[in-house]
Amino acid sequence: GDSVTQMEGPVTLSEEAFLTINCTYTATGYPSLFWYVQYPGEGLQLLLKATKADDKGSNKGFEATYRKETTSFHLEKGSVQVSDSAVYFCALYMDSNYQLIWGAGTKLIIKP
Amino acid sequence: DAGVIQSPRHEVTEMGQEVTLRCKPISGHNSLFWYRQTMMRGLELLIYFNNNVPIDDSGMPEDRFSAKMPNASFSTLKIQPSEPRDSAVYFCASSYRPPNYNEQFFGPGTRLTVL
Q1: pLDDT surpassing 90 at residue B103
Q2: Per-residue confidence at B96, pLDDT binned at 50, 70, 90?
Q3: Is residue A4 a contact partner of residue A91, using CB atoms and an 8 Å limit?
Q4: Residues B112, B89: contact at Cβ < 8 Å?
């Protein structure tokens, strides 16, 4: 079945470091791909999305490119801030299904 | 828009008690999801409603769990009787079917502790 695999956390970086959180997926068709972020004590919120191959989603300095050839959707940011500390979830959605398929989440800790 | 509203935000109860969690989805959204989040299992989908009708409840852990959606603006998740292993954060999320059906809006969650 469809699935999403994320790199395990926690990922600990210093402020202004470059961030990559890996996400790969398995799907029988052509899914839409998402990154959601969960700040401490809050619900998840959509960070960015891409609906077809080679699309790049971006928001708040974060970017992710839908790579069909490698079935990946890695999250990147050039210079992280302490306020980026959160749990990041990769997810996919198929039109043939009604629900998002979630990765396990990656906790990001940014130290000043 | 107020976003998805959940109540209570925190609930502490004793084993065997009934617990009712409440959710008000975003106005105009016609799909509603209940999730459970724990350290061990991560984020699990419990049940999904579309137009107030339960479509898939295969994620509901057992008969102690039940969910209702009597109208488009209200849903409940009930646990009776509660057990310590039910301790988790429960999220409600809503979405609107096409064109942005695949974007779910989450509430702040209810942190449930069963002693």
Answers
A1: no
A2: confident
A3: yes
A4: yes
